[in-house]
Design a protein that fits this description.
heterodimer, A: fumarase, 5-stranded mixed β-barrel, B: alpha/beta, Dihydrodipicolinate Reductase, domain 2, 4-stranded mixed β-sheet, 24% strand
Chain lengths: 169, 294
């Protein structure tokens, strides 16, 4: 299986083969509907994004709270991909800003597919609903932005060997 | 008259919220294992193995199966010979959801207003369906519903002339449109008949039926089997990455309807389609808590 470490280069993204598994390590940034709305508002207002976008990975995900005071306590609660299609209205705006990959589940719109090709991005899918398993790939969690959004806040997850499928868009 | 306290109700709901989210039904895991025997290609096999491993981890570690621990849908069947003391039923149910969410480290996924969208941060309110039934017990079914699958559901008012063929076409179209979004293999709940709103409720209730059971009406049982075969021909497959297993079951819940109509609702449930139930006060003998057997 091909291994990837974020931040990714244009060449690494271009070499991804549709329909194959990849194993991703490094930092991924979570962002769902509410965070996307704010990220795009920031860009439209001439502001800076709260994380470095170029070569990064945006994970469409909102984790469960982290269980505390447990023996061998995990660093995060279950976490997995949400439906990517809901971010389709926002994704091209971010792709235009800087190339990166997005991680979610389900199909993308034609507009997103066109933006992915135009800006040298890629779309990867995690296994929907396998959140207890996926959480085992997370080694570290750090808040990044919009903490008031609860599970929809942007957090930086340091992942190791997150299995993903390169999607055909 | 038999009495039950609001605290007992809240306790039960809290426990069921956690159980439903952490312990996948045996009917579901059995169906996933059966699917693994049918799939031959690497991709669907790997996804099914991951889903089974995921359910095992969740059960052993007592953590949610999926990060979308859902909006709590609670069916309360209240015996007409029982009296609730110490508070209102709705408040007791919401207290239970609040506590279950906190104690089980479940995700708070509910916003107060559909457009203004501020998170209530305790996963309340629940969606409560109350029915009054004979007897002196309170049956509580907690069915947390994730929205990856809920968003893929649909209602359509068919014409009587559309008949069974039209119904099946609509179900098939709805599953096809859903694609990989609802985390297949899915459970397909179909409500047929009634009125606009009842069809939707019937389809939700259809998801509570144990996977692997037959429809008591041979006519509908045959339709379920035909639809399941047709859905699994779509090739969407586990996770939406292709394969022979797009649905684990199709459950059709029919009801009388008007001479002018044929309402059909399709409620898609993901590969865990969670639900747990209990009856209060505990029955004197016999019946045990566990998976729903509607």
């Amino acid at each position: 299986m091909k291994t990837l470490l974020t931040p990714l280069t244009r060449g690494e993204i271009a070499s991804l083969q549709e329909g194959t598994w990849v194993s991703l390590s490094g930092v991924v940034y979570t962002a769902r509907d509410a965070a996307h709305k704010r990220l795009c508002e920031l860009l439209d207002g001439g502001g800076l994004l709260p994380f470095p976008l170029e070569g990064s990975a945006i994970f469409y995900a909102g984790p469960c709270p982290t269980p505390s005071a447990k023996q061998g306590s995990p660093v995060i609660g279950p976490v997995g991909p949400t439906t990517s299609g809901r971010m389709d209205g926002y994704a091209p705006r971010l792709m235009r800003e800087a190339f990166h990959v997005t991680i979610g589940k389900g199909p993308r719109s034609q507009e997103v597919a066109a933006a992915i090709r135009r800006y040298g991005c890629a779309y990867l899918s995690a296994i929907g609903g396998a959140a207890a398993l996926t959480a085992r790939c997370v080694e570290k969690v750090e808040p990044v932005a919009f903490e008031d959004l609860g599970t929809e806040a942007v957090v930086a997850l340091t992942v190791r060997d997150l299995p993903l499928i390169v999607m055909n868009v | 008259m038999r009495e039950i306290t609001a605290v007992q109700i809240a306790d039960a709901v809290a426990r069921l919220c956690v159980e439903a989210n952490t312990d996948a039904g045996a009917d579901i895991t059995t169906a996933l294992e059966r699917a693994l025997k049918i799939e031959t290609d690497g991709m669907p096999r790997r996804v099914l193995e991951a889903l089974l491993e995921n359910a095992k981890i969740a059960k052993e570690e007592h953590i949610p199966i999926c990060q979308d621990t859902g909006m709590a849908v609670v069916f309360a069947e209240l015996g007409q010979d029982i009296h609730i003391t110490g508070g209102a039923l709705d408040d007791a149910i919401n207290d239970g959801v609040r506590r279950g969410t906190r104690e089980g480290y479940l995700r708070s996924s509910v916003v107060r207003d559909p457009v203004r969208r501020d998170n209530t941060l305790d996963n309340t309110p629940a969606v409560v369906h109350l029915s009054l039934v004979p007897g002196s017990g309170l049956r509580l079914i907690v069915a947390p519903k994730g929205f990856g699958s809920e968003n893929m559901s649909a209602v359509k008012m068919l014409k009587p002339a559309d008949g069974l063929e039209g119904l099946e076409r609509f179900v098939l179209e709805t599953v096809q449109t859903a694609g990989g979004n609802p985390c297949p293999p899915v459970i397909v709940g179909v409500g047929a008949g009634g009125t606009f709103e009842l069809a939707a409720l019937l389809s939700k209730k259809a998801l509570l039926r144990e996977v692997g059971t037959e429809n008591p009406d041979p006519f509908w049982d045959e339709a379920e089997k035909r639809l399941l075969a047709a859905i699994n021909e779509l090739g969407i497959g586990p996770g939406g990455f292709g394969g022979k297993t797009t649905a684990l079951a199709v459950h059709i819940n029919p009801y009388a309807t008007h001479i002018a109509g044929l309402p059909v609702a399709v409620n898609i449930g993901c590969h865990v389609t969670r639900h747990k139930e209990t009856t209060l006060p505990p029955p004197d003998a016999g019946k045990r808590d566990g998976d729903v057997t509607l």
